[in-house]
Amino acid sequence: MKAIGFKKHLPIEEDASFEMFDIAKPEPKGRDLLVRVQAVSVNPVDTKIRGANEGTEEEQPQILGFDAAGIIEAAGEEASLFQSGDEVYYAGSNQRSGSNQEYHLVDERVVGRRPKQLSMAESAAMPLTAITAYEAMFDRIGIVPERDRGSSVLVLNGAGGVGSIAIQLAKWAGLDVVATASREETTAWCEQMGADKVINHHQPLLKQLQDAGYDGVDYILCFTDTAQHWDSMAECIRPQGAICSIVETEKPLQLTDLQAKSVAFMWEFMFTRPMYQTEDMIRQHVILGELADLFDQGTIKPTLTETLTPLNANQMKEAHRKVESGKAIGKIVLEDWE
């Protein structure tokens, strides 16, 4: 079967940064599903993995990809959540071979039924970013819709893949949403997603919030450089608020900056559950089901902005190039195997 991968970590401009490989079709065992992949999307984590350890060679082709939508071909003997022919979407695991292959093995506990009202491409755009946003807000910070109605949240990098869906989920939960963007087109995108106010993350954040009538915010979702915005977040968060970030930092964070306000800080990493095989790993199956309902109801909408075809090495290079540019809005999807 066909797969897109690489044997050497190279800049995306290099011819061999991605190649087409012919690999053996896997067989599902245990709780695994064998999915015939119809569409995949590219996330910043894909570009980071490919770009890491530049020049290093791998013994076997490295197959990237997390987001996927497709059709179940077969299931392992312990799988019970789906049947052959079911259409699904998922973000998979960072501990296994990726979804950039015609047939892919994935644990059923991190798979959801595909939203009926979305196309395959739209479905493939959503799992990683939507799970990340959902877990950050509801599993990590602990926001409860209705109870927290009227609370305020600052979404740093609102036009990115995670920010785009976080804005929508926050509005669904009844929050007052302030998002950050720095360009005219990204500001418009945040407003389209439902942000009540958009401010510039290259300008002092607290002053902009105050000018807009806020004395601070109850929650902060950091989907960009954590260390760069640390001081601003400490200034903007209200007493007894909470900050959740998804972006790692090589610089120490001064957690004592949050002490006087009794502010909670937490990380969100959507691969934690599958990576450590946690007892609540099936929670991602449940989350994807809840998100599918919200998509089908039209409460939230997909953030797909560009679809590339066919699914081959050259188009994968183009998708990585666009994501690495830092100017991509929403999600980029590839579909239809060559």
From TrEMBL:
Family annotation (SMART domains): PKS_ER (SM00829)
CDD domains noted in UniProt: AL_MDR
Sorted UniProt keywords: Metal-binding, NADP, Oxidoreductase, Zinc
Xref: InterPro entries: ADH-like_N, ADH_Zn_typ-1, ER, GroES-like_sf, NAD(P)-bd_dom_sf, Zinc-ADH_QOR/CCCR
Boundaries of every Enoyl reductase (ER) domain copy: 15-334
A GO term, aspect molecular function: oxidoreductase activity
Domain of life from the UniProt record: Bacteria
Keyword Zinc in record: yes
Family in the record: Belongs to the zinc-containing alcohol dehydrogenase family. Quinone oxidoreductase subfamily.
Protein name per UniProt: Zinc-type alcohol dehydrogenase-like protein
Organism: Marinococcus halophilus
